[in-house]
Amino acid sequence: MAKRIRLDKSIVTENDRLAAVLAHRYDDAGILAVNLMSSPGSGKTTLLEETARALGGRFRMACIEGDLATDHDARRIERAGMPCQLINTGGGCHLNAGQVGQALDAYRLEDLDIVFIENVGNLVCPAAFDLGEHRRVVVSSTPEGDDKPAKYPVAFRLADCVVLNKIDLVGATDFSVEAFRRYLAGIKADLPVLELSCKTGEGLAGWFQWVTGARDALGRPARSGTRPGRAAPAKE
Ligand SMILES: Nc1nc2c(ncn2[C@@H]2O[C@H](COP(=O)(O)OP(=O)(O)O)[C@@H](O)[C@H]2O)c(=O)[nH]1
Ligand SMILES: [Mg+2]
Fold first, then answer.
1. In what helix (H) or strand (E) does residue 164 lie, and over which residues does it extend?
2. Ligand 2 center to residue 65 CA distance, Å?
3. Are 79 and 96 in contact (CB under 8 A)?
4. Is the CB of 166 under 6 A from ligand 1?
């Protein structure tokens, strides 16, 4: 049993070391890194599709997509105009910093303004793995129920912003926005909550504003203009 505890500790420590390397890579290149996490189906991919369409002319953006299986979401994001590097984790329930570091090698980071990381869909494991990101976003959605902040406090406590998606469905469920905000306030006061619907477009402007503000907070001018570059493929 003692041996198992030591192993867990060393894995986390190795991830922390690699996350620190990633943080340096983002900062050296002057890019904003945003790590999105949620339960499966909350709307992370849809939010990234909308972001690609709305902010594509302003920022050079790329995505790292974490999924257990399939390239469905990566293809959706690419179709919306954002280059996407897919990590299929097999059984893995979260992305780790080593995987993200390898995926980042596909991009010329100096050509990017923002990299989004769509984490594997669940609200437990992804919260425990630092990916060196500047901002963490938890996407929640109304059909999941309003008590999720109370049930998954770690993910919400470590978030910098909460997106409450599918607000268009609030009337069709027993979801209470007031209860959701109350649970959240009990976990972390002053956490920004963006109520929106990726389906109707309601509230999306607030998300675009939040992303723009986070990018501006880096204090580095965006390089908008041309499409983001991919690194040249490695020679055989
Ligand atoms: N009604 C409604 N459906 C949405 C909204 N956003 C996403 N969806 C749908 O929810 C499902 C899951 O979305 P997806 O983006 O794949 O979730 P992910 O697993 O978190 O990436 C898809 O069928 C979307 O079309 C929304 O704001 N309202
Ligand atoms: Mg997805």
1. strand 161-165
2. 8
3. no
4. yes
CB atoms within 10 A of CB 123: 24
Q: 47-95: per-residue pLDDT in tens?
A: 999 999 999 999 999 999 999 999 999 999 999 999 999 999 999 999 9
Decide yes or no: CATH 3.40.50.300 for domain 15-211: yes
41 lines ligand 1 (CB under 6 A): yes
Atom of ligand 1 nearest to the CA of 48: 15
To test the ligand 1 pocket, which listed residue (76, 162, 198, 200) has its Cβ within 8 A of the most ligand atoms? 198
- Domain positions in the chain: 15-211
pTM, two decimal places? 0.92
Cβ-Cβ contacts under 8 Å for 81 (sequence gap 6 or more):
52, 53, 56
Which atom of ligand 1 is nearest to 196's Cα? 27
Low-confidence ranges of the chain (pLDDT < 50): 225-227, 229, 233-236
Share the mean pLDDT of the chain: 92
